[in-house]
Each structure stands twice: as C-alpha cells, then as structure tokens.
Amino acid sequence: MKCPRCGCNAIKSKTSSVTDLGDVLIIIRNVPCYQCEHCDEIIYTGDVIANIERFVNAAKTLHQEICKNPALLRFAARGVRGCGDVA
Ligand SMILES: [Zn+2]
Fold first, then answer.
1. Domain holding 67: CATH number?
2. CB burial string 31-58: b at 16+ within 10 A, e below
C-alpha cells in the first residue's frame, strides 16, 4: 500500500478512530488500517470505512433514543454512577 500523501510505503497497523458528533464522541479502538512509514498518514480500506460509518450511524440512533426516552436516560445515569459507588 502506497501513502496517498507522500507516496512512501504504508504498513498494516491499528489505530483508534475518533468521530466527534457534538453531543457524542465515538471512539473505536483497534481499527485495522495502513500507516505510512514516512509521514504517519493513516489509510483505511473501503470496507473498514463502511464499518466505521455503520457503527457511527448506530451510535447516533442510540443517542437519539436515549435522549427522547427519560427512562433510558435514568438507566444510563444509574449505570455511570454505579461504576464508582459502593452501594
Ligand atoms: Zn506518507
């Protein structure tokens, strides 16, 4: 795989994909990619981009459902508090 930015060799690697949707920050770890040995440019293959988009769209839908459903929101908040609290 050649780097589209500088034309050097890009090798198989893994990275974290971060998508900022404003209210939601989606971080996907261990995403397969190619990384340029020269300029560190990250290159995704087409199927990986499609998978990231599918994941981001699913998270967007989930976020909308949580926001319009007060019961789910209470459930989510309880889950967060439950992490550090000793009941
Ligand atoms: Zn490069």
1. 3.10.20
2. bebbbbeeeebebbeeeeeebbeeebee
